[in-house]
Amino acid sequence: MSTGNMNLTLKVWRQKNNKTEGALVDYKLAGISPDMSFLEMFDVLNEDLITKGEEPVVFDHDCREGICGMCSMFINGRPHGPKDLVTTCQLHMRSFKDGDTIVVEPWRAAAFPVVKDLTVDRSAFDRIIAAGGFISVNTGNAQDANSLPIPKMQADAAFEAAACIGCGACVATCKNASAMLFASAKISQLARLPQGQPERYRRVQSMVAQMDAEGFGNCTNTGACEAECPKGISLENIALMNRDFGSAKFLSEEAL
Amino acid sequence: MSGFGNALSSSIGKKFIMGITGIFLILFLIVHCGINALIFINDGGLTFNVGAHFMATNWIIRAGEIVLFIGLLVHIFQALRLTLENRKARPVRYAVNDGQANSKWYSRSMGLLGTLLLIFLVIHLKDFWVVSRFTGIPTVDANGHEDLYAVMKEKFQDPVRVVIYILSMFSLCYHLLHGFASAFQTMGWNHSKYNGIIKGASVWYSIIISILFALMPIAVYTGLIN
Fold this sequence. Notes:
Chain A is α+β, with helices and mostly antiparallel strands. In chain A, 33% of the residues lie in helices and 13% in strands. A five-stranded mixed β-sheet of chain A has the order 2-1-5-3-4. Chain A has a two-stranded antiparallel sheet with strand order 6-7.
């Protein structure tokens, strides 16, 4: 790992587990390269801590390519830090200045309990998806690609919604810790495609019910989620979800 | 019919209630502002009093007034409930939260702006609504209509009241600036062909309504209209 010349002060949230209270702890870091990613900077911190015989900072990460949705740091008051459309792993230290103080906190939401330090339990998202974020098809030979025509605009819109990586930045930044952008991305992705139609209105009801049961807050349309989403998921998806939910509850015969 | 209560108590149902009552209150403000703006005709309040007389005596309007109060109360209680629930959704606050990096301050402060408006509303209803409906307007104008305009002139001689009214219109403007466009998004009326129109209408509506209302105490106090 290349060495650099950046000196930083980190204020990192340390919390033993969900039962104990946490606090911000100060760490001084020297010789950080501007070419490091934010997570590589944390690797340096952890190596320092291990050498000193202290407990390393626990944080989530996996692919470090910006596509898996595991990394989840609330950096200087913003999820995934100061840059738009990037995850924490794709944030580089050149986005900061020598001598900066950086505050790093975990996602904060009742539905995302802290596991340890900067790692939170996001299985609430899994349960929302399991409630209806799928299509039921019989297995067998794959159909011919052209047997199910989908207009390009529809396909593109579905694809853009499908880009959600489920990182939870939308919940983290929302002043109400609402999960509407996340839930709506999956609902709208499937609602825009022919394969999603048979379960369309059942899906929106189940997924919204699960989202509410998990203890996420209520959306107040501040738009912070859309602004902070590393994948640029649009608020249009929430509007579509609301429309479908209204149709399902007030116009359709189908109950849950 | 079962399930409607269930639907309305869900997170999206609660949004629908806020949105629908909000749109209803937005429509009410157009009527309220339109009739009050009759004072700018500057005919000693004769036309304005005709409007006020109509509003006070027409049975459709009086029935609408009851619906208005119900809508207002639902809007207020729903907002209170949402605020409390949303607080619970984030029990531990952030040490550092850069809200202005991703959203407008007034979008995040609808509860505060709404509370200021509620305080204003208590003052405002006591000033005019209680007088016209209950305690009675003391004088009549040249047409024999109850002279609500005279009540207005008398109330707005007090500079403190004038300042409270003007400041409250700032709260109203910012509350509407978020609420107007937000109601459309909530109802699912988000469409690339109409979003520009909604956004534009939202800004123009909020500014025009608030300025017109704010001009009323100013015009009376400074004697611009007499």
